[in-house]
Amino acid sequence: MSSTASRPASAVSGRQARWQPHNDSRRERIVLAAIELIEQSPAGVEVPIVQIAEHAGLAKSVVYRQFAGRDELDRRIRSDVAERFVGDIEDALDIADGSIHNILVRTIGAVVSWIEDHPRLRDFLRTGPSETDPDVDAMSALIATIAGSTRALVSGLAGAVGVTDDASADTMTFAIVSMTEATVTRWSNDPAPALTKDQLIEELASYAWHVVDGVARRHGLTLDPDQQFTEVLTHLIAGDRPDSGG
Questions:
Q1: 148 within a domain of the structure (yes/no)
Q2: Number of C-beta neighbours around residue 1 at 10 A
Q3: Do residues 105 and 132 both lie within one domain?
Q4: According to the UniProt record, which residues make up the DNA-binding region (predicted)?
């Protein structure tokens, strides 16, 4: 019988717990090294595990002790990249700061900047699933996650006027996010785009506003895109609901 098997379960679990921070740190080093190398690599070129290990200052065997194989490592990398992307978007999507137009421009600007600055990571998200959703590629899962976050902009308005059409809000936000991601990706891949970055952001913000405005009017609500979002909510909660005029 091995020495590990002869020890009480509590002793083994305690030893594992003591090593966990060390293992977490190594996993983080490996993932960060992989992300840096992916960003530096040519499009479509897979970074070898031995190169990732060297960049992290670890032996190749350490990588395989921390991850069962390439698939698990790649899923973890995609999850980490997606979390960073979502973090940037959620920082921009602060409904307590600015008008509806400000929020749309700021959030779409964050999407444009991230995709422009990280083209290889964007492409890598499309190569397979993340840890959180094994059934879809990581970019599709990311779009769904961002769409969920942007529902705050819609749900706050809808709840204030007693509208509970969750299906409409879900469809609208997903349509806006999908449109934005696809358009920005096409723009970033164009060697001579017709629009500047600022023009693209304003154009997409305008499209997004017209979608939001159209859905709001269907529910009898007229919104002012230049009014502070918190003021819009305050008026609506107080019962001041402007008529759409038809």
A1: yes
A2: 5
A3: yes
A4: 48-67
Residue 99 backbone dihedrals phi, psi, to 5 degrees: -80, 175
Strand partners, 102: none
Q: What is the CATH number of the domain that holds 52?
A: 1.10.10
- Same domain for 110 and 51, yes or no, is no
Structural tokens at position 161: 């006027």
Query: CA 199, CA 130: separation in Å to the nearest integer?
Result: 33
- Cβ proximity of 98 and 228 under 8 Å: yes
Instruction: Pull the structure tokens for residue 55.
Output: 């960049």
Helix (H, G, I), strand (E, B) or coil at 110: helix
- Region class of 237: left (phi > 0), else alpha (psi between -120 and 50), else beta: alpha
Q: Which amino acid is at 193?
A: P
172-195: pLDDT as tens digits: 888 888 999 999 999 999 999 999
Shared-domain flag, residues 32 and 106: no
pTM above 0.90, yes or no: no
C-alpha to C-alpha distances, 33 to 52, 58, 65, nearest whole angstrom: 6, 10, 16
Handedness of CA 65, 69, 72, 77 (dihedral sign): positive
54 and 115 co-located in one domain? no
d(CA 82, CA 35): 12
Whether 222 and 243 have beta carbons less than 8 Å apart is answered as yes
Q: Which of 30, 45, 67 lies at the terminal end of a domain, its last residue? A: 67
